[in-house]
Structures are given as structure tokens and as C-alpha cells.
Amino acid sequence: MKSDIRVCAAWRDAHERPVYSLSSTCPECGGETENSAPAPFDPKDAYGEYRRALKRRVRE
Known about the structure:
The protein has 60 residues and is an alpha+beta fold. The chain has helices spanning 11-14, 48-59, and strands at residues 6-8, 20-21, 33-35. Helices cover 27% and strands 13% of the residues. The chain has a 3-stranded antiparallel β-sheet with strand order 2-1-3, with no helix packed on it. Pfam families: Nop10p.
């Protein structure tokens, strides 16, 4: 699911703190914004194999 809340892509360089917006441009500096939500999973997930195996066992 895509988040509607976006954060200024250059906030570390242009602002003291993150600047959030619902539009595609930053309200303070006019720069582009990006999705503020973290990725839903990490491809290098160390425990992913175990979680998937547990789900398979529960379904059976």
C-alpha cells in the first residue's frame, strides 16, 4: 500500500527537520518529495525463511 504522506527528498540538506507534505513538492523549499513509508520488507531478511516456514506449517 502506498502512503499518501510524503517527505522532502532533500530535507537533510535544506531543513533542520523532516518536512512532510501531501503534494509532490515541498511546501518550504519547492523541492521534490518522496514516499515517507519504509519498504515493506528487506530482501536480506535474516529470519524470512523461518517466518515463511512457520506460515506453511500453520496452513497445513
